[in-house]
Amino acid sequence: MGRLILLLPLLFACAPLGGEAPLLPYPGGFAQGGLVTGRFQVALPGTPLLLDADGEALYAAYPFQLLVFREGRLESLPLPGVPRFLRAAPRPVVGLGEGVWAEGEVLPYPARDAALTGEGLLWVGAGGLYRDRDLLRPGAFRQVVAWGGGVVALGEEALFHPEGWRLPLPGAVRQAQASACGVVALLEGGRVYLVGLEGARPLAEAEAFAAWEEWVYLAPGPRTLSCREVAWP
């Protein structure tokens, strides 16, 4: 807890200087100005740069620190830099530009996004989809999501690994997260799609989103909808 107290001034520096704090969706609810509602109920010490959650914990990333809220308690973990991306599931990873923080270690991979799975660290970078140091599939990908026993890498197309199937998308993906119905993806221009082996179906318009089970949390809002409204039979 001492580490948390020492870093409080830095965390408050992340908060907006004026106006209303942005609404941040996370898997299971929303946060605004550090106040988290929904599946997790907690007052964070400032607006996080990135927010995500798995089935057991909420993860809030700040410069040089990752806060973990689990079973009513906050834990502070040091980060060696400013986070660029955060994924809570299957296991937490934080992107740091030229490296990836994973389970307390910093791995020297220049990832745009990553998923820590039983197969290893799968990440997307300039050359395509990688597993640790090995290039698995070439491509221009921005996001990678664990889904369906493998991963889906997304850019202007979706690549399903390990099958190798590729699906063209109606635009470039900015953000992606797994849901009970498939992969939910936010494209450039603010269009949210549900992506699966059957294709891509429009779901909503938003500036940001998060997915948890069948529910999609949208901002501006707060708004929620079920992915089953557009899912394939």
Automatic annotation (TrEMBL):
Name under which the protein is recorded: Uncharacterized protein
Source domain of life: Bacteria
Taxonomic lineage from the root: Bacteria, Thermotogati, Deinococcota, Deinococci, Thermales
Organism: Thermus thermamylovorans
